[in-house]
Amino acid sequence: VVSTSLLVSVDRMGDVAEDKSSFYSNAEDYWREVPPTVDGMLGGYGSISSIDISGSKAFLRKFLGDGEGKTGKGRALDCGAGIGRISKRLLLPLFRTVDLVDVTQEFLDKARTFLGDDAKRVGNYYCCGLQEFIPEPDRYDIIWIQWVIGHLTDDHLVAFLRRCQKALRPAGLIVIKDNVSYEGVVPDDVDSSVCRDLDIVRRLVGRAGLRVVHEEQQLNFPKEIYQVHTLALR
Predict the structure, then answer these.
(1) pTM (two decimals)
(2) Is 103 assigned a ligand-binding role in the annotation?
(3) Does the annotation place 89 within a ligand binding site?
(4) Which CATH superfamily is domain 13-64+73-233 in?
(5) Is 19 annotated as belonging to a binding site?
(6) Mean of the pLDDT values across residues 81-93?
(7) Could you tell me the maximum CA-CA distance found in the chain, to the nearest angstrom?
């Protein structure tokens, strides 16, 4: 989730691509051991949750409402949802229905109670890695992808974004919010992920046939973690 790796930046995606199965299985093993709590979802940085949600809400509200190019408020998809922290505080207050997808069944089981009364507005809980997940076409107004793209290889990220584009309703929006490295690709062997720089993320977005329509840096996060940027894609 929140990458605190301070390793020297190197381009390692080539190595990862050669051993996809262990890249994914090691990540699944890591998350299986993480407690199903907000602090667990945020790598021990539970204290930043409110700042994160406030920033995301301000970002998202620029696109919601009536009028040309505005996004509907029908259904959202929370990718890498964990226990539903983002669904509970960001998506369910703004959308009628939310679907959750995560690779760890224990987190999705916890989400059913963590979401409280709002759980009745959850459409589906999908237990699946994003590299294999196929969202239903023409279903979502917002697809929210936060702190999870580092768990996908370049090719799988591009393919997933293409599937997400097909899953959008008219005027729908894909949002990526994630850590970005200062240069290149930085591997994190602890949770079996990578952190890419912004230029690489933008290039992969372009390969998926999408364009960045708005971009912001999340402010007021601890200085020791990588910068976090939010990108709206169409």
Answers:
(1) 0.93
(2) yes
(3) no
(4) Vaccinia Virus protein VP39 (3.40.50.150)
(5) no
(6) 98
(7) 47
